[in-house]
Here is the input.
Amino acid sequence: MRALQWCLRKQCFQHRGDLGESIRISRDTAADLRWWAVEGNLSQGKPFSQPTPVATVVTDASTLGWGAHLEDLEIKGRWSPVEQRFHINLLERQAIRLALKAFLPSLRGQSGQILTDNMTVMWYINKQGGVGSYLLCREALRLWSWARDHRLCVVANQTIWPGS
Here is the structure.
């Protein structure tokens, strides 16, 4: 549905809210609409609550680098000069992606909790995207697709670091 939301958002601005105007849709938007035509998709529903996480991945990022840990496993890295210019929300999201990829052997097939101090990234992950930032939406959708492919159920929660 996010592709449809982004398409409608863009078209609304272009047509200044004129509901009589026809709109063009992208292939991604058409795919989103076709999903709704499959009867089985409509009866899937969504659980009222997430499964209890059995693993917790703690992540953090700055404009210089990132780090994460899962129990006694730890990983960290530095951003390239190009990446250092990215918005902190994208860096925090990238840190989560890198951590989950590194810890996948310990996480596969489980329910995992991501602890991040970035509320925006937490929201985009839990809502499977959003319409405020196209880049964060795209990255959140990629995360969900990747997690599904690796049988990983993820939920993001906030962590507060001492002194923040």
Remarks:
- The chain is about 45% helix and 20% strand.
- The chain has a mean pLDDT of 87.
- The chain has two domains: 2-42, 55-158.
